[in-house]
Request: fold
Amino acid sequence: MKMSKLFVQTLREVPSDAEVISHQLLVRAGYIRKLTSGVYNFLPLMWKVLKKVENIIRDEMDKAGAQELLMPFVQPKELWEESGRWGAYGGELMRLKDRHGREMCLGPTHEEIITSIARDGLKSYKQLPVNLYQIQSKFRDERRPRFGLLRGREFIMKDAYSFASSQEDLEKEYQNMWQAYTNIFNRCGLATKAVQSDSGAIGGNVSHEFMVITDTDAGENDVFYCDDCDYAANSNHAISKLPQAVIDGAGYFNKTEIVSTPNCHSIEQLAEFLKIQPTLILKSLVYIIDKKPVIALIRADKAAEETKLLNAVGGLEIRIATSEEIAEVMANHGFKAVPGFIGPKGMSDLTIIADETVKDMKNFVVGVNETDVHMVGANLSDLGITDLKYADIRLVEAGEFCPQCGKPLKVTRGIEVGNIFQLGTKYSKPMNGVYLDTDGIAKPYIMGCYGIGVTRTAAAAVEAHHDEYGIKWPLAIAPYHVIVVPVSEKEEQQVAVANKIYEELRSSGIEAVLDDRDERPGVKFKDADLIGFPFRITVGKTIAEGNVEFVTRSTNEKLVIKPEEAISRVIEAVKNIK
Ligand code: ATP
Ligand code: MG
Reply:
């Protein structure tokens, strides 16, 4: 490809809406252009990268025994009603009607469709296990599309679904996919960590996410991990052992009573005023889950984890209540307390969830829905709660202890590029996806599902591989392997040698670009670095001595070598792509 013909427009300015580096660089280097919020055009360079990522995924999925198919992007409501998700899937599901008024949605995921395909075709245990996958566009009307390709509304995903006749076979396939994912991300030049995770709206029991670890904002997940053993979990699923703490207030309060705590709106103010540790305070938080208020109780030195709380209630959507909503809850129960003084007393008509840490608390401090006072030396029995449910709703913090080996946990951030789920019968049961087992009885398939964000993986590769000048594509997914740059279009010898190198590379099957533009060398080098060609062969003055400059983008190492050697280095590197 000649640079003068390559469809690419590089920008010097950082686009104003691009917060993370992959978004900035992919726009600046001419890979993507936004069409509308969370929806991007994948320009020729981007499309080459995405096809390479897709082909690595295809290769490994096929090797792992999965079979590719393609399902429609538009899906009928009826199947989603069968699974129960038409009502359950929130605002992310883009619903529409056809000209006959029939309701449809744009596929955010394909469990319903694949289950309908399976139940038509997989009727006997003899046909199982089977794993079917596709690579396709998905649409999710994300609440906050952001970070370019990392969280789009329309994006490309590889989604695979397995069908088995036993839990054992499902687990085997789960391990098989785990290995395939490890291979895929390695080949894409990405180091990933597999972490335990919440199963979310997809449902099921066991699941792992493959995270690209980063210390930037692009990592939307907090990952807790242990250096001493293999424990690693998303914060929405992580658990920990807590250090010893004072959780019995007997030494501080000799009876249960209401005391004045003027202006103690925060835990810090209250602890200081009463001269106690926050571990002796029971914190009451008001959340809105599926439009209803829910009270969460937790030891005041700890924070609640919203996904855990949502799961404990069995809800679909959660957010913290606004101060107006808290005032309304108070009014509905005949109270007037302001935040800071709220408590579970007199709220038994609401769902009340207590974190497991609350079980062991004794003689603690708690709000009683009256401003400027708290109850001290209190126990749960003093609060008249009729229906209290305990669950782990606590957000783990770094420094707490590993649930497996007891060493301190660490925290980092991760970009989730893929995940694997053991679904069980969550879809096959309601949708009557059954096969005839050896005993002649019809049984629901035991399913798994396995996703990889193709577009997100490409963006994560940019997050992981770049410098201040631009992208440093891993060779296996770079749009082109090498750029050949004559320093001056006016120097005949330079142009002639550059052309010859370019032709030789191309005839050896190398994806090469020749920068034939009549531009200053600085402009050519800047573009080459920004676009991120893994190798650059520069033909400049040193050609008088028979040498070219050979630059490896990943290290920015420069060598002055013979053209033949530069060519063979590129050929060798490309040959070594796994
Ligand atoms: P997230 O927690 O990031 O929203 P998810 O749990 O909703 O992800 P899945 O439904 O399991 O993700 O989708 C499988 C894969 O698709 C994810 O691992 C991710 O790589 C990719 N993906 C999901 N949502 C998006 C999105 N909005 N934009 C780009 N890729 C996405
Ligand atoms: Mg999501």
Summary: The chain has a mean pLDDT of 96. Residues 109, 140, 142, 151-152, 155, 157, 200, 416-419, 451, 453, 455-456 surround adenosine-5'-triphosphate (ligand 1) (CB under 6 Å). The radius of gyration is 29 Å.
